[in-house]
Amino acid sequence: MKLFRVRPRALRGLCVSSSSLALALAVVASCASVARAEQWGGIVPLKSRRADVEKVLGKPVEDKPGATGTLRFKVQGGTITVAFVEARYVAAHHLAPDLEGTVRQIVLQHDSATDTPDSMQITTNRAFQRDREGNAEIYRNQRDGIAYTFIEGKLRTTYYTASAEEFR
Fold first, then answer.
1. Three-state DSSP state, 116
2. Quick one: pLDDT at residue 37?
3. CA 139, CA 159: separation in Å to the nearest integer?
4. Residue 78: which of 54, 113, 121 has the closest Cα?
5. Nearest Cα to Cα of residue 3 among 135, 146, 139, 136
6. What is the pairing mode between strands 103-110 and 129-133?
7. Model confidence over 121-137: pLDDT tens digits?
8. Which of 26, 54, 89, 147 fits a disulfide with 159 by CB distance 3.0 to 4.6 angstroms?
9. Three-state DSSP class for 71?
């Protein structure tokens, strides 16, 4: 089973007037420029908290509170590590104090994914910056807060963080 992003389905079969459609398109266009963090399985960086994570993933196999503030979960296809915003991170990044305790990063370690940059169609996606280090390729989309690491062409790690805009 592959681990993948959760995306809403497109609405089908709607009957709307042309003025309603124009208004809807204007609203969508105005929202399109606002960067939001990518989510995974309903867990959203800088929004979700520990209780939300445990509701989605269950009891962690490893719980490291304190300075690192991480939870690790074993799932079919790999492991998930969730890191939380701690007080030092809030101070260092000049974040709002109420963000302490929210999800900072979600890291999916894929055991045997067969996805490649081409199969995921990110090699031609201009939103992704590509870096290469030895046999590893890293594709980063800082605007949306997502990164993929490929080792020898196969997906090994997916990172979900807050978007660059949300850290401003």
1. coil
2. 53
3. 10
4. 113
5. 146
6. unpaired
7. 999 999 999 999 999 99
8. 147
9. strand
Q: Judge whether 47 and 102 are in contact, CB under 8 Å.
A: yes
d(CA 86, CA 134) in angstroms, rounded, equals 33
Query: What are the tokens at 119?
Result: 């199969």
* pTM for this model (two decimals): 0.73
Conformational region of residue 20, where left means phi above 0, alpha means psi within -120 to 50, and beta covers everything else: alpha
Residues 84, 110 contacting (CB under 8 angstroms): no
Calpha distance 49→35 (Å, rounded): 20
- Is the distance from CB of 108 to CB of 157 less than 8 angstroms? yes
Task: Say which residues have a Cβ less than 8 Å from residue 85's Cβ, sequence separation at least 6.
Answer: 46, 69, 95, 99, 100, 101, 102, 103, 104
